[in-house]
Amino acid sequence: MLTKDGIPSVEDLSAVTPPTKRLNQGPVAVIECFQEIPCNPCADACPSGAITMPGNISARPIFDENKCNGCGICVTRCPGLAIFVVDFSYAANEAMLKIPYEFCPLPESGEEVQVLDRAGKTAGVARVIRVQQQANKTTVLWLAVPKDIALDVRNIRRKMGAMS
Amino acid sequence: MRETDIAVVGAGPAGLMAAAYAAEMGAQVLLIERSQALGGQLVKQTHKFFGSRQEYAGERGFEIARKLMDRIENQPNITIWKNATTLGYYPDGVMTVKKDEKFHTLKPRKIIMATGASEKTLAFPNNDLPGIYGAGAVQTLMNVYGVMPAKRVLMVGAGNIGVIVAYQLLQAGVEVAAIIEAAPKIGGYWVHASKIQRCGVPILTGHTIKQAHGTDRLEGVTVCRLDEKWAMIPGTDAYFEVDGLCLAVGLSPLTELLWQAGCKMEFVAELGGYVPWRNADLLTTHNNIYVAGDVAGVEEASAAMVEGKLAGLAAAFSLNYQTEKFAAEYHEAKNQLNALRAGPVSAKVCSGLCKVMLGEAI
Amino acid sequence: MRIASHPILNFPQQETVEFTYNGEALSGMSGEPIAAALHAAGIRTLRHSSRYHRPRGLFCAIGNCSSCLMTVDGVPNVRVCVEPLRAGMKVETQEGKGTLV
User: Fold this and answer.
1) How large is the ipTM?
2) Do C2 and B140 touch (CB under 8 A)?
3) How is residue B74 annotated by DSSP?
4) Helix B326-340 to helix B301-318 angle, to the nearest 10 degrees?
5) Which residues, other chains included, contact B67 with Cβ-Cβ below 8 Å and sequence gap of 6+?
6) Torsion of CA B270, B8, B62, A85, to 10 degrees
7) pLDDT confidence of A162, banded at 50, 70, 90?
8) Distances (CA, A) of A3 to A79, B51, B112, B251
9) Which of B145, B147, B216 minimises the CB distance to C45?
10) How many whole angstroms separate alpha carbon C84 and alpha carbon B37?
11) Contact A60, A36 (CB under 8 A)
12) Cα torsion through C69, B275, B252, B38, rounded to 10
């Protein structure tokens, strides 16, 4: 439950997940921002005007999935790392998922990684398609994940390797 | 005896902004910082900030600190004193400072206190063992000096500091066993909690520390559940083997100088402890003393920066310093604070601020 | 233990200096707090309390709490969490309150 552990419920998620028809058309953002906090970099960053925040900056973002082309700029800009892009048109059995990632070591393109759900539990295995490093250090990982877990996967399992 | 227009005590986000805006209006500013580096808590923040573009949203705290420091270092009206601890402020308007082992006396016409806040601690058996740190200490070790604070940590407190520092521990390569929080709900932003959960770190609300264990250093902690009356529930003990315990249990404003100066103070739990009464321009009941940042009430870095801007402008104006930008910047600062405090997550701070607000402003 | 790589931060290599801790030769980075150098070398106990000789280490790391007081170059009650390390410093765990005169 969001108020107890930050994990959104099925109801919370259904309100922000674009309809299946849109998911199958091509890449689109899923904005998992549920709380009214003073914050607007997503609306500021979106070049298509798909994310707006009329009124004060504490409002939740308003998302128009038809204006969104899944470019993923919002994924790297969101300070809460709460935005993901999913593309169900990627392949027959796989969706492309773009997630923000701020750990090292970074995985490599072509690598197979274990993927985790919102509670950090292993959800399955995915292939890293691209590691898109950014100047602001929020890397965007492009993962090919099985379609049946694409809406649950939100992280990859880290290799513990940052110590001297 | 050194004279100056405005003495700003503390060079964290509030103090840096106060000095910048006051000096840009034309005042002579002396910025006094007790540590060897400027930036306060901002230099330790590796996460991206919230707010709007005006508050540097999307930029990391330490990058914002660099921008603020560049701004004041290039400002000829600002004299910077580092390694300078403000010792006292006396009824005759004299401020005493120890700088580099020498004793200085100053007579500033106006003062902006931006001394911030310090970490609270928790009482439990063996809470003094090496390996038990305040959350800020862990951030300092990891993010400023590149030293691992421990191998495996339990975080106490799921307010913003607890959930942010837990994530930073993971980024530094430290294992986080869990975050425990005594209250039934988390106090931090849900997005911070979500980031940590998807890394497999559990957040256990309704839990508290019962005891720490270890001889020379921390080896483990016993945690237990609390009932709805905040009493420990027998038979719910759980042991965590950890070599680090991080207490993120709140901050208390550092107000000693305000007390000494005779400012009217009030205990406001929502703001972290004793805070000064102040008007909408951040002037206290002492005609020459303004406040900005966590010393005025524990809130967020974004609010601290805007309060610094407001106090800097107001203090300079009171000495008849202003440029043609004054009115626009003054109103912009007020609007920024209102925007930052408009949402439900600021309800607690707003109800606290109502209790210490004085009447007149510019 | 020092952090070798970090996803956001770069830790520039500083000048390494030698110092002693209770007679033992150690090294650290010039200018970092003594407590950071000791911590990197795995040393957590900085002093013992006066009455019950309880081990004490860092708590606040910002100079507020007095948990970290050690004797440095013969001077007691030095807050090693903020005191910068210099080459040749003689750092000793402090037992109790330390003698000023």
Assistant:
1) 0.94
2) no
3) T
4) 150
5) B56
6) 50
7) very low
8) 19, 21, 38, 22
9) B216
10) 12
11) yes
12) -60
The DSSP secondary structure of B282-299, one letter per residue, reads -B-SSTTEEE-GGGGS--
Contacts of B192 in chain A (CB under 8 A): 6, 80
Directed axis angle between helix B160-171 and helix B190-197, to 10°? 30
Size of interface A-B (CB pairs under 8 A): 147
pTM of the full predicted structure?
0.93
What confidence tens digit (pLDDT) does each residue in C49-77 have? Answer: 989 999 999 998 888 888 999 999 999 99
Report which residue type is found at B199: C
Residue A64 contacts C, CB cutoff 8 Å: no
Taking CB atoms and an 8 Å cutoff, what residues of chain A touch B51?
38-40, 57
Cα A115–Cα A119–Cα A121 angle in degrees, nearest 5? 45
Kindly report, residue by residue over B332-353, the tens digit of the pLDDT. Answer: 999 999 999 998 889 999 999 9
Identify whether the C-beta of residue B262 lies closer than 8 Å to the C-beta of residue B286.
yes
Return the partners of chain C (3 or more C-beta pairs < 8 Å). Answer: A, B
Residue C95 pLDDT class (50, 70, 90 cuts): confident
Give the residue from C2, C9, C48, C67 with the most B CB atoms within 10 Å of its CB, the best one to mutate: C9
Q: At a CB cut-off of 8 Å and minimum separation 6, what does A83 contact?
A: A29, A30, A31, A32, A33, A42, A74, A75, A100
Chain C residue numbers touching B35 (CB-CB < 8 A): 62-63, 82
Q: Place B77 in a pLDDT band, splitting at 50, 70 and 90.
A: very high
**Searching chain A, which residue's CA lies closest to the CA of residue C2?**
A164
Residue B278 CA to residue B329 CA, distance in Å, equals 20
The answer to whether residue C78 neighbours chain B at the CB level (below 8 Å) is no
Average pLDDT, rounded, for chain B: 95
Structure tokens at B183: 């209250």
B contacts of C59 (beta carbons < 8 Å) = 121, 132-134, 137
Touching A (3+ Cβ pairs <8 A), the chains are B, C
